Amino acid sequence: MTSDTLYAQPLEQLVDFNFDEKVANVFPDMINRSVPGYASIVAMTGILSAEFFQSNSRCYDLGCSLGASAFSMAKAIEDETKHIIAVDNSSAMLAKAQQLLQQSNLHLNQSVEFICDDISHIKMSNASVVVMNFTLQFIAPEKRAVLLKNIFQAMNKGGILILSEKLNYTHKSQQQLLIDMHYFFKKANGYSQLEISQKRQTLENVLIPETLEQHKDRLEKIGFRQTEQWFQCFNFASLVAIK
Length: 243
Ligand code: GEK
Description:
Elements: H1 21-34, H2 38-52, E1 58-62, H3 68-76, E2 83-88, H4 91-103, E3 112-116, E4 127-133, H5 141-154, E5 155-166, H6 172-188, H7 193-203, H8 212-222, E6 226-233, E7 236-242
Parallel strand pairs: 1-2, 1-4, 2-3, 4-5
Antiparallel strand pairs: 5-7, 6-7
Helix pairs in contact: 1-4, 2-3
């Protein structure tokens, strides 16, 4: 795994974060050292998808990056009618994801399909499992409800949406404490103060977190029959919503 040192040196100009080739090359190291609970969420995505998958339906991994959640589903779902569609609009990420798929000796080729597109533009249907692990936070806030409505419409009754996000808090001291704890996590994982601060600045206009209440209210308004938070580590959480 290539180490993430992208922000280790002082950068003259801090440009908005984007998922280019440099990021794709270090992505597994970056996400594991930056997102508390990431490995657990990916593993549980497989476990949950195996239970909620309906024969002859589709699973979507929206904002799949290198395909970790898609591969977790492909490995966990035994039903051979599974069709996993993994979507990302970063061609650098998808090129690497395709490589990983070819290299894997898991015979996942028939079940996983990668699509390079904006998740707000694709047509979805017949979905029993939809996964958005840390992707909605990168979609413009005003476009989130429309995207979630499209997902809802594409889902079969009894299907599951797994939605993982960084959270925001409205209470000032609560927000500060959660941010501090996330900082301790990154520091303990070997990131310097400079790295943490430069990365934070590049993400400021790009990753826009919402509160747990905003997520739950929106999912309920859209029509999901049950919405539950099943995981949290510091300010990173995961919800399931059942249609
Ligand atoms: C994982 N889920 O490893 N359309 C398609 N893809 C998008 C869009 C968009 N509009 N916006 C952002 N992305 C993954 C991790 S990373 C999270 C997800 C993180 C993609 C973007 O290119 C990136 O690959 C991914 O969403 C977010 O389980 O890096 O914090």
